[in-house]
TrEMBL record:
It comes from the Bacteria. InterPro entries: P-loop_NTPase. This is Fructose transporter. PANTHER family: URIDINE KINASE.
């Protein structure tokens, strides 16, 4: 198997990580790579880089597709904590990963995604072909060891913890929230009161990863 880095994002991955992926996929069987990390750590960017480095051989299935809908978060009184571990359908996420591991050659599986422009999950948005050897799943809580989340790690063939300078990560988060509709003061409050609370919990799970992927500052 050969790897190419034809696009700008793909060129960001060090060769040693591509070699590790080559070893993971060497037997041609379905493999699932989990990318965990705090909000703003660059999980989606890394997933996209791997996708571009493996044209036609990988698909990204984000955990964020299992966000509870805004109306349900409001009913539960959790809208102000959107992004916390109990604002996702964790059991549904585990069930999808189990299906992806056991996908039959004659079966198409559809995964949900999350649209930031509407702040809602969208069902059936990501087709997973049965012959795609690598499923990349990325999200905050892949390495938690309680609730339904504890069933995620055994379903991953390999897990990477994605890390970056914390100040840069917070700057990215503020910019993201501003881009999608919050004013800067509201964005900073959300980062401090919600994202950083979640980040502390997520950081406590890094020992459950096979390796830590550090983005350069």
């Amino acid at each position: 198997m050969t790897f190419s880095k034809p696009l700008r994002i793909a060129s960001m991955i060090e060769d040693r990580f591509l070699v590790r992926l080559q070893q993971l996929m060497a037997d041609g069987q379905r493999r699932i790579l989990g990318l965990a990390g705090a909000p703003g750590a660059g999980k989606s960017t890394l997933a996209q880089a791997i996708l571009e480095a493996l044209p036609g051989r990988a698909v990204v299935v984000p955990m964020d597709g299992f966000h509870l809908a805004n109306v349900e978060l409001a009913r539960l009184g959790r809208a102000s904590r959107k992004g916390a571990e109990d604002t996702f359908d964790s059991a549904g996420y585990v069930a999808l990963l189990a299906r992806l591991r056991a996908q039959r050659r004659d079966e198409m599986i559809y995964a949900p995604t999350f649209r930031r422009e509407i702040e809602e999950p969208v069902a059936g948005a990501i087709p997973v072909m049965p012959d795609v050897p690598l499923v990349i799943t990325e999200g905050n809580y892949l390495l938690l060891q309680h609730g339904h989340w504890k069933a995620v790690r055994p379903l991953l063939d390999e897990a990477w913890y994605v890390d970056i300078d914390p100040e840069l990560r917070k700057q990215r988060l503020v910019a993201r929230h501003v881009e999608f509709g919050r004013d800067e003061d509201a964005a900073r409050r959300w980062v401090q009161q919600t994202d950083e609370v979640n980040a502390a919990l997520i950081d406590s799970t890094r020992a459950n990863a096979d390796l830590v992927y550090h983005w350069p500052s």
